[in-house]
Amino acid sequence: MTKNKKRFTGLLLTAAFAMTLSACGGSGYTTTNEAAATETSSSASGSGTAVIGIVNPPTTLNPINPNDTASTQAISIMNDSLMVVNDKLEFEPRLAESIETEDNQTFTIHLQDKAVWNDGTDFTSKDVEYTLGMIAAPAVTTNINLSFIEGLNDSGKLDEGQTAISGFAEVDDKTFTIKTKYPVEITYFNDNFSGKVRFLPQHVLKDTAPADLDTSPYMQNPTVSIGQFSFVKFAKDQYVQYKANESYYLGAPKLAELYVKILTAPNMVAQLQTGEVDANMDRTGLIPVEDFEKVSNMTNVTSSFSPISTPVSVMFNVQKMTDPKVRQALEMAVNRPQIVDKLLKGNGEIVDNMLPSTHPFYDSSVEPYAYDPDAAKKLLQEAGWDFSQVIHFSIPVGNKVREQASELVAADWKAIGLQVEIQKFDFPTLLQKLVSNDYEVGVVTIPYTADPSSVFNYFTPSSAMNFTGIDDPELTALIEQGAKETDTAARKEAYNEVQHYFHENVPQFAMYVDNLMSAQSNSLKGKVGPDMLNNVYLWEKSE
């Protein structure tokens, strides 16, 4: 534990992306910006319109309960966090001007002096306190778990009878402190708080009861926000429309308008070629492998491969697939080299569990089970598997490569005599099934972060996103040990043990890790790729 005061400005260690579902509907709220959604972009000093193509549609605009990556991305365009992550997995200040700690337990956050909501209201510590209070309220639905903050229980909620978070203290309008239950490494703090929490406007929602927040009209029409662009319209399964936030504290955007356009992958590729789409969204606007060559040959488009890639996971509901030997056998039966070499055309890799080989906490001593169908069948026989039993395999639609890979997995299982029934769902439906553990075997992609707790916390009983339903005190203790260590080497050792546990018990395995292609129109000046949404306010478009 450090005893010297540390000030974190500029590039602040490492990373946070997120998985994020939804709640919309409801009752009244007060706003000083009622006309925001109907104003045109003519008042903006910026010019031009950019269109980002996306294949997976967002399911919610709720800043404190985004359950899918597309929703997180749509929200991040109009709502900043305290820190953002660049493509080198380093934290950069955003709403926070700086973060200081002397003991890795009490963190002092200084907010940007010029930070204001898009209606001109000052952004203050009271907005932070209000947001954290709503996240911690038992009646509020959220997938953000801040249980490491003093005063909150293991579910990240206030216990009955409590009305304030003891770990939060307002110093002044632009300064507050967060005290954790135990010392944590700054990477953990930034990953789980500074880069994750987005804020609610206290002056708009202050009269909304916690029980009514999920169904507040604000969650469908969030016209008051504190991000690069302001919300205009969400046309379901078509687009999300934004306009430049003239009050943005880092400077008004150079664009007048921005659209996130929802398309099928083939249509997105076609519209990149016609110029109707200016860039594909990282992770949720995947260009199919079979179109890599086509896109790379487009004369009006510049393409590259992302330095960050995410394992696509096969998840087991361990309450139904209870025997680790069976789960091991199912992993051994999958011909992953074929997926990478033929389906991905070599643009990928094989790893064992939740982390890619490029991750700083990846344990290279944990080797994935080799493809061995004979050994897999023998292991199933030893486990007493009933080969007449049907395995229900739930996969999401939308990402064609993921669908095709899942079908290859099912074929491999059938090849060793297993009965497999593929069930396809749109992503929101599958996500609900994963969250409620209403499935047997499923496929999902959970974006990793530089801090491994963010992905491994999915496998603890207190997590609202415990897709596998696992509740093993041994695993929970290992994950908690990794979270509580402040020494990086000791943390790595703890998470190495977690990865060995995954290898032996297989609550999940990585089907593949694919390299993602980024593409942008030559008429768009601005950075695309993993951190493309950090600086959209600097994008320019030449017509």
Explained architecture:
By secondary structure, the protein is an alpha+beta fold. It has two domains: 201 residues, Dipeptide-binding Protein, Domain 1 (Dipeptide-binding Protein, domain 1); 204 residues, Dipeptide-binding Protein, domain 3 (Roll), CATH 3.10.105.10. It is built from 15 helices and 22 strands. The strands form six sheets. The protein has a six-stranded mixed sheet. Strands 1-5-6-8-7 form a five-stranded antiparallel sheet, covered by helices on one side. Strand 7 and strand 8 form a beta hairpin. Helix 8 runs antiparallel to helix 10 and helix 14 packs antiparallel against helix 15. The protein is globular, with a radius of gyration of 23 Å. The termini are far apart.
Brief summary:
The protein is 26% helix and 20% strand. The protein is globular and about 65 Å long.
Give the secondary structure arrangement, pairings included:
Blueprint (H helix, E strand, L loop, with lengths): L5 E3 L40 E6 L14 H10 L4 E3 L5 E3 L2 E6 L4 E6 L13 H12 L31 E5 L2 E5 L6 H9 L7 H4 L4 H4 L15 E7 L3 E6 L12 E6 L2 H10 L4 E2 L11 H5 L4 E5 L5 E6 L7 H9 L3 H8 L4 E2 L23 H10 L7 E7 L3 H16 L3 E7 L1 H9 L5 E5 L7 H4 L16 H12 L3 H18 L2 E7 L2 E5 L2 E2 L14 E2 L2
Parallel strand pairs: 2-11, 2-12, 16-17, 16-18
Antiparallel strand pairs: 1-5, 3-4, 5-6, 6-8, 7-8, 9-10, 10-11, 13-20, 14-18, 14-19, 15-19, 21-22
Helix pairs in contact: 8-10, 14-15
